Amino acid sequence: MPDRYPGYDVMRKRDTPSWNDATRAVVDARLGIADKPQFLTAEAWQTLQAVCARIVPQPATRPQVPIAALVDQKLAADSGDGYRQAGMPPLREAWQRGLKALDAEADAQHGQRFHQLPRAAQEQLLAAMQNGQLDHAAWHGMPCAGFFSARLAHDILAAYYAHPIAWSEIGFGGPASPRGYVRLPANRRDPWEAVEARPGEEEHARKGNKHVG
Known about the structure:
Blueprint: H1 21-31, H2 42-55, H3 67-77, H4 91-110, H5 119-130, H6 144-160, H7 164-170, H8 202-208
């Protein structure tokens, strides 16, 4: 897959007028998170890591976003969304129950835990979860499709795109504090925003992204 923003690194903004001390502190904390669990058990952590690898496969050509650690950090802080989907238990309970149920489904169908399965079998189980087709007793009444949409996909994708590595990938400049944005209409960009490459324009984009601040 071609690089949409060749040469762009959002971290070049760190010591420029684009970010203030509060923004730098938040970004530094995300970059410094250890890739290990604070809340989940060792077994649940293994399952979560395997799930994250299937939901957001990451290229080996750049540093990895510690998605599982970011989700686990949310669980450790018990940081909810300010609302809860009907029929779903609270954040921590939903994740604990859902990961156990996924392992139970994997064991019932394949005789192994989820993280031990080949990729195709993992993807099949996740697709069945998304489609509401899993019904092991370990779900204890929690709808598997609801868990997939309200927690699994929601929290994993939110964790991924909250990390600066993912910001560079999509050309996002990070928090707009204190500089903000001026050229808001469609198809316009401020000088400090990333240049998206078009076919045959990769070299132009690289030159345009040398000065980001």
